[in-house]
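Worked example (supplementary).
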Amino acid sequence: MPAVLDIHDITVAYQRKPVLWDVDLTIEQPQLAAIIGPNGAGKSTLIKAVLGLVPTASGSVQVFGQSVAQMRKRIGYVPQRESVDWDFPVSVLDVVLMGTYGQLGLFRRPGTAQWRFAHECLAKVGLESFANRQIGQLSGGQQQRVFLARALAQQADIYFMDEPMAGVDAATERIIFELLKELRAGGKTIVAVHHDLRTVPHYFDYVALLNVRLVASGPTEQTFTEENLRKTYGGRLALLDAAGDALQAGSARP
Amino acid sequence: MSGSLATSSTGAPAQGAAPATSQSDAWSAWWLLGGYAAIVAVFAAAWIWRAIPERDYPLVLGTMATAIVTNASCAIVGCYLVLRRMSLLGDAISHSVLPGIAIAFFLTGQISGLAIIAGAMALGVLTSVLSHSLHWFGKVSEDSSLGVVYTTLFALGVILLQSFASGTHLDADCALYGQIDFVGLDRVPVFGLELPRALLTQGVVLLVTVLIVGLLWKELKIVSFDPALAAAMGFRVLAIHYVLMAMVAGISVAAFESVGSVLVVAMLVIPPAAAHMMSDRLRHMLGWAVVFGATSAVIGYMAAFETNTTAAGMMAVVAAVQLGGAVLLSPQHGLVSRWLRNWKLSLRIASEDVIGQLYRVEEARAERRVDAEAEAFVRPQLRSLLERFAWWRVKRRGLTELNSEGQIGLTTAGREEARGLIRAHRLWESYLQTHFALPHDHLHEPAERMEHFIDPQLRDELDAELADRTVDPHGKKIPRDPQTDQQQA
Amino acid sequence: MMLPYNTLVVLSGVGLLGASAGLVGAFAVLRKRSLTGDALAHAALPGLCIAFLLLGERNLTAMLLGALASGVLGNMVIAALVRWTRVKEDAAIGTVLGGFFGLGVVLVTGIQHMSSTGSKAGLDSYILGKTAGMTAGDVYLILAASVACLAVVLLLFKEFKLIAFDGDFARSLGWPVYGLDLLLMTLVAVAVVIGLPAVGVVLMAALLIMPAAAARFWTERLGRMLALSGAFGLAIGVIGTSISATFAVMPAGPIIVLTGTAFFLVSMLAGTKRGVVAQSLRHRKFRRDLAERRLLRAALEVSKLSGNATFTRDDLRQRFVTTSAELERALDDAIRHGAIEPCSSGTYRLSSEGKLRAVEIARGHRLWEALLVEYPELASSVADLGSVSITPHVPSEVVEDLTARLRAAGEWPELAP
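After joint prediction of all chains, the assembly is encoded as:
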């Protein structure tokens, strides 16, 4: 069985400054994986490099044993929320429908089946009554849920998410996590850039610590340790406190 | 905390936010669009009948039709430019096709024809490619690379035009301002009608535009909305970009005949910008853009005729005026509409505050009438226009009445409504206190704000949450729901 | 050779024009507003016409003032649209450009139709410019305007510099960024307006962009870029006009623009700091160095692991994942530099210098990694893929500390005995 994700020796540099340096990461089986690290550590860049959205100075990526270009139909992507134009004249349902575009060929339009499926995906995130609203009319948490519904509509086997829980309220965060758990139970893999150390042990069973280079990766219990956190975040006291809290929270679970 | 409350769709809406668009709104959008187009059409017909001698009808109609068709193509393509924030690319390309036109003139002696359009499309793509390369390899900022490329091409075009065309009937003015006024003179017979040749060319261009947009509908949509996702999904973002650029170039050249190269940018940008103000769906935006383009053509032509100036310039001016109108009067996003919505909301809040106050005073005095002192207590706040309106409004709605001494009190209906409001207020205070453990003096203000937006259903939910509590944190009684009281009675 | 008076007048006029356009345009270019100049040039037309209509005669100063007012009004409309509506900046610029220019065209043709004399002159040359008609009075006007622009730029140099670089920060300092921006755009409008009679509408935009864009390739410092931009503008104006006067019978505008393009292209290719040729050479060299280093590191690892001194291409490919072309090139480079020696068919081995170099490279690599872990802030400020080791970038105590740690952890690369 080929590994779900196999990243080998990825280096991304801007001029000559490395943003990612010789990153190796392999995820063998479906997981709920988090990528964490300090700001500027290259987390978003790693996802973009995997998807071919930024040029790499070196390295290769394989998904399910094949190149990314060949596996596009099985890969889902939830980009950061800031990149979107909220004045664009599309409805919530339209956005979710876009998730189905990858499965349709050139020139084909989404049909009744796709419409119905989009409604289902919206229902899964609890936003079905919002289907006809223009996207600019939603709150931050609702917008994030729409993007998740779009990801569901992509029907992928591995999802790359860039800070899916950033800037949302606690209730929305829980909803999103429940959804991710459901996906994971269905055999999908999620690779998410996560911003909040405290919640890592609660949500994710696999973690990769990144700071330009990969510090450590593996199951959360073994990898999310004080030692590794110190190596990733350096000697920054405030963060260490947060990390300490997170560890305590994690170990407090039965 | 109850899950339903977390996902409830009620909540204080943003000030003046546009209401949700539903299916019926979609239909009304088409009606509005169609209505506007119809009004302009009728007006134009009346004008033609009155101001134009009958023998000139084919000329005028043919000219108008050509202008309409040209502007329609510009509007459709322009929508995507505006949404992708590439309006200036459209401006640049419309200038940079000039060398192509000059060369075409040199080779064929005329500036119309489908072959020239194809050549111009190549030049349009070239402009985009060159600009992109300068940006990528030369690390020049995008706007600068565009500026360098298109001014160079335009300068080349002017030089070529001067070399080849000086001494002929084609001069720079014409190339730049277009010659819509002469379009009607060059006619060919089609199905027994004498139609301007330009109309046929433009008709083909429009047809091709509609065809491409139709075929690539979802590709254009997703590439315009979320290029990162589109690339990740495997869409050929760059290819689609170049297709769009080629279309802009082809349309620019085709529009050359009607509005000239310098005003194409107006037709590429202004109607779509106005359409963006009017719509929340891509389909509607395209529809509005075409209508605005067409009406600019018609009204512009009429205005130019009456004032004896160029049609091209007038069309641009009319388009801009329409944009101004849309900015002010758009039902969803116009400034006037937003202001009106704000006003209505403020009025509603003020009215509710009025009857809320009266209820509280009543409660405090446990009497059914407010006496003069209390009135004096309430009245001094009537300083602003809003509050005056509010008092007037509640009186008109039958929620308050005057007694024989000229004092103001609540009617039965007013009392019912006030009860509901106070109930919402006190339920919310209780909720805040129990679930967020806020101190007593922090409860009143949030409740003051929220009470206007808690509908009866939510009140019942809160009630259930609080397990039928009867007294708020300040010890005041929480009014029962009038409905349940009646049922129990 | 004595130049005739007229030629001198025109040359100095256009030269001054180019200089001030280059100067003011530099800020516009840095603020990514290159095309605002074009928009302003178009938006100025109605003002020009209205001034003419009000005065009834061709008075250059009045017309230019009218043009300026119209341009500034256009700017304000753009700002208002962006601030109060859904219309985005590019669409707002396009709207003002098209709308104002359309109005201007209407006024122009109206004037043409109503006037008895052929007063098309002056307005007609608006599009393409007409340097030949320049008088000494015009030149004095241009001189005055240029000096004024220069004075404002010098006075407000640090303010303009900051808002060009980081507007938000300037706002947080309490500076009136809005007002400064408007002032800057007004300077651009002044430059545009005084240039219009000479080079015409569209081409004025070029004069604002090209000198600055060309200057950018030669320096990284703002002061120098401004000076160079002004100088380029001057040169472009003078040279372009001379060529036009000597050879062609067409207006000077397009020729001046093409001169500007030439300056731009030459700068882009040859510019020492950011020119394309220099950069791509540097980049190519960097990539090849990097590839060669990775190859040597791979070779060292392979020979250590297998215990053999020799290795094949395939062995290398295991540890050095890249395209075959890059592998071949790196191998050739390594052989050429004497680090790798070919043995029997298809196998290679590290030479003795090669081994030393490989160990050095491996150590450098480990030090970089350790630096990233132990001193992340330091690492992020000095990280440089081009450098083999951290030594030139960090204090020696740091190097010693890291070396000691690596040794203790058994990760310090050594030469195999």
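Two points are worth noting when inspecting this output. Chain A is about 35% helix and 25% strand. The longest strand of chain A covers residues 17-27.
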